[in-house]
Amino acid sequence: MTAEASSNYAIDVRGLNKHFGDKYVVRDVSLRVRRGEIFGFLGPNGSGKTTTIRMVCGLLKPDAGAGTCLGYDIGRESAEIKRNVGYMTQRFSFWEDLTIRENLDFVARMYDIPSRKAAVEEALQGLGLKERASQLAGGLSGGWKQRMALAACMLHQPRLLLLDEPTAGVDPRARRDFWDEIQSLAARGISVLVSTHYMDEAVRCHKLAYIAWGRLLTQGSAAEVITGQRLSTWALYGQRLAELQEVLRNQPGVEQTVTFGDTLHVSGTDAEALRQTIESTAHSAGLRAEKIDTGLEDVFIHLMSGSDRGDGGKS
């Protein structure tokens, strides 16, 4: 039995580290992604997400750490990994003066795919590109470009997709359609590691990990990530919330204040101290207050503020 057959994980890496000159980009990152799982990789720009993805798929050699991708050693068997992984980069990296079909045919030639024309037709049909097959790639909207890029990733029938912010700059409807395709692929047993900044996408993942300044701060299901931070959150409704936000920041129990339109979210780990502060403030300011469920966005803002303080956030 091969290592791949004996493992339940498409990705199983431990202690990944990477420097670029004096800059420490990834620090002791460990990830496990099960087969058929959609694993969301979140964090601010420059946090180390792309570098980690490149180490996982054998494009970049780690300074330290080890592990496997689809059962292949990430240090010694990068060629085998590349043949079985579809990698979609942040930037549109195809030929804008070629049609969709010509782009896919070119990629199929690069992979030396048998029955190339049939594979291209299947990709066009499967991703809803058939009617646009003769359209130049340069004339596509962001959503259709991403759909074409996904079709190119799937031509060689990979068992793992690595998607690096695939929907950046894409409108909400196109993002929703793209994620419907991702979930359909996962239902067929294809594993997906996807980096994203969007909370509505994060909640569609089976598991999540949050990275900041190269360190992995938390991972688990959305519910586990939220519960693990032990945050209590209140919402205040009314006027002049920006002024109130400044007043609240130094009050007992208040660790975080975030404005969402005409609502102010106030969070902290000392639930009773926070309750007393909120009720007193709401009464004196004539505002409506209610305790609400802590959301992923509240948690990730809290994690990021913790990493800014240099304490790595609360676990």
Which structural traits does this protein have?
single chain; 315 residues; alpha/beta; six-stranded mixed sheet; four-stranded antiparallel sheet; disordered N terminus; disordered C terminus
* Largest sheet: number of strands, sense, barrel closure: 6 strands, mixed
Distance between the termini: 38 Å
Question: Tell me, what's the shape?
Answer: globular
Helix-strand makeup class: alpha/beta
- Can you list the strand order of the major beta sheet? 6-7-8-3-9-10
Share in β-strands: 25-35%
Contiguous low-pLDDT stretches (5 residues minimum) are 1-6, 309-315
Specify the oligomeric state: single chain
Tally of strands = 14
Rg, nearest Å: 22 Å
Write structural notes for this entry:
The protein is α/β, with parallel strands linked by helices. Helix content is 36%, strand content 27%. The chain is built from eleven helices and 14 strands. It has a six-stranded mixed β-sheet with strand order 6-7-8-3-9-10, sandwiched between helices. Strands 2-1-4-5 form a four-stranded antiparallel β-sheet, covered by helices on one side. Strand 4 and strand 5 form a beta hairpin. Helix 3 (100-110) crosses helix 4 (116-126). It is globular and about 75 Å long. The model is unreliable at 1-6 and 309-315 (pLDDT under 50).
